Structure prediction request, 117 residues.
Amino acid sequence: MTQVIYPTNHAIERFEERILPLIPKTNPMRPNDKQIIKKRLFRLTKMNVKIDEELESMKHDILEINVFFTPVGGEKSPPIPITLVINRNKRILLTIYITSNWSCDDEKNPKVWRLTV
Prediction:
């Protein structure tokens, strides 16, 4: 069963700070205000986070879930590896950041993400 996860203002601000600069400014679908970002984060968690009985029985309230955010729009953009930090009891997205051990080659267009170990 899919549970509703709501993004906090902090998560929306971290998206603006950390993820939005990685989406090309020429992309016509680039989110340009907090309401659109909130809708995208809501949709992202709905598609990628399933809090089932197994997760309900965990002792920890905070989950870190690694996903790929694919920017939509006219310009081809590779998926961005991000980590969603969720409080499973309160059903909120606390924050969002680029997943550890991933780096982006800023020289290339489109950008290329590589897993670094």
Notes: The chain has one domain: 6-115. Strands lie at 6-7, 62-69, 80-87, 92-98, 102-105, 112-115. Residues 34-48 form the longest helix (15 residues).
